[in-house]
Amino acid sequence: MHQKKLAPQSGGSDLKSETKNSMFQPTGSDDVLALCHMFANRIGKVFASELAKYDVTIAEWRVILSLHKNVSGQEITRRWAMDKMAVNRAIASLEQRGLIKKVRNDKDRRIIDLSLTRSGQALYEKLLPVANARYRRLMMGLDKSETKLLREILIKMIIHADSIDD
Hints:
The chain is mostly helical. It has a domain at 51-164: Arc Repressor Mutant, subunit A, CATH 1.10.10. The protein has helices at 15-19, 32-52, 58-66, 73-80, 84-96, 118-139, 144-164; strands at 71-72, 100-104, 112-116. It has a three-stranded antiparallel beta sheet. Strand 2 and strand 3 (112-116) form a beta hairpin. Helix 2 (32-52) crosses helix 6 (118-139) and helix 4 (73-80) packs across helix 5. The longest helix has 22 residues, at 118-139. The chain is globular and about 50 Å long.
């Protein structure tokens, strides 16, 4: 796989010099939400190709990642803000392949919890280092204070978006 050199950690460097060699060239009309979508699409495309080597989609990976403990499909949908049908398709595919199992919740029999099978756990253990490496590559462009600030801003934006969700 061809790897591009990463932009140096910013620490005060100017944005123009960092974007000079990038395929992305900001314009005056790029707003913050558009930039969030552009970034999400770029990281999704790269990670999707990495996951495809394991015959796993991004939606399926999110389900697998969420199942470190028994949770319901509804909880996964809420946590990742994903379309309910996309989560249901991912769950059905993973169950059909023997990677997850459904278990009736002891406290509320109406709820069906999901958990990883041994095969699902083995796949999780293979994919987690891949995901962590991708995360580290992406975050190399930010220093610790920028990472902390970005995290705080994103959490604040998610909480606000949830408060205005119809």
